[in-house]
Amino acid sequence: MKDNIFTNMDRGNTVFKDKSPLSHKFLPEQLPHRNDQITMIAKFWIDALDNVTPNDITIYGKTGTGKTAAAKFAQKQLLEAAQNNNTYINVEYIRCTDYTTEYQVLAQLCQRLGRDVPYRGWTKGEIINTFDDILDQEINGHKLILIIILDEIDILLEKDGDGLLYTLTRTENVSVLSISNYLDFKKFIGPRVMSSLRDKEIVFPPYRADQLADILNERSAMSFKENVLKEDVIPLCSAMAAKEEGDARYALDLLSTAGDIADDNESNVVLGDYVITAKNRIEHNKVTDIINTLPTQQQRVLEAILILTQDNEEISSGKLYDTYKKVSKGDSVTYRRIFDFINELEMLGIISTNTISRGRGKGRTNIIKLQCDEQLVENTLNSL
Asked: Please, are residues 39 and 223 in contact by the beta-carbon 8 Å criterion?
């Protein structure tokens, strides 16, 4: 039998003592600069400890502003309080990128609540009835109060409609906490659901550079060996992430990747220069992954944007469509569909759009700009 490749692999010298605190999934004992938001969630959820179904909540905020961490932190605290209070409460976290339809979410909830149901094959009515039956059961004379955290709910709503919210908001002892990166996600919710949602809203502002530094200082103490970070490393990570709309995830990625680069260079310290290299590496990987996974027609739209950018053209939607048709060589979508592609590319951070007025009687025009390195986009498209 051959030796296992990992058995004799030299881990080498490393600047890390534990990389897990730099992970997006790590939940620390405290969340710096999010106490106000966590307290607001707790104020809405405290009714559950009196066997009263809490209000629905909606959390808004850009990526990396602590929305998920705050919800999970409050979840952990409520479940601890419920144990001490002898109350029948459950809080379930559902990521809507993993479960993208009403059926999938309800089947997952039924499974977690102890009912063995198939992930496909039942009618919608059967899965809803099973879910209702679970919630009708009582323990010590109390029905279960179920709080459901729906993270990135906009993805499910756009794909599957508002049927899940319709079901959940009309179930007596269910409360929903929705998390979205987009303030306008409710455009996917119809009037019949809005009337029963009646949610309380909490907005998570972007982190400032000094706040990001506090987060990184706390995590780095858990993650790195003593005295390996040069003084400029955390300020650099914080300043760069502050420019990315206060994204704490990006700040953690920069710090973690800078540590990886130190290890790659067999350095026993993390230098500020490594943060710059980390930024380029992260941007390269992110853009490359996004472009590689785009549908073919969106790749062609991006190629058209690149061509116009390289020609120093002002990119209007009309001009973009003309160039896109040339790129597509007869295999093109409609002009209206192009607007969907533009919106999706903007959401991914690949491009930006700005509506400008042409003056009285001349209407308004969307101007499109590439937000990524031109050479990187060109190299990635050429490699497809």
From this structure: no
Q: What is the pLDDT of residues 151-167, one digit of tens each?
A: 999 989 988 999 999 99
Domain-embedded: residue 18: no
> Residue 119: which residues within 8 A CB-CB, separation 6 or more?
104, 107, 108
29 occurs within a structural domain: no
The confidence band for 372, taking pLDDT boundaries of 50, 70 and 90, is confident
Q: Name the percent of the chain in helix, strand, coil, to the closest 5.
A: 55, 15, 35
Domain range spanning residue 84?
34-204
Note whether residue 10 is domain-resident: no
CB-CB neighbours of 101 under 10 Å: 16
Q: Give the Cβ contact number of residue 250 at 10 Å.
A: 22
Q: How many CB atoms lie within 10 A of CB 222?
A: 14
Please count the CA atoms within 13 angstroms of the CA of 133 that sit on its side-chain side: 11
Residues 254/270, Cβ–Cβ less than 8 Å: no
Residue 314 burial (10 A CB sphere; 0-12, 13-18, 19+): exposed
What DSSP character marks residue 265?
T
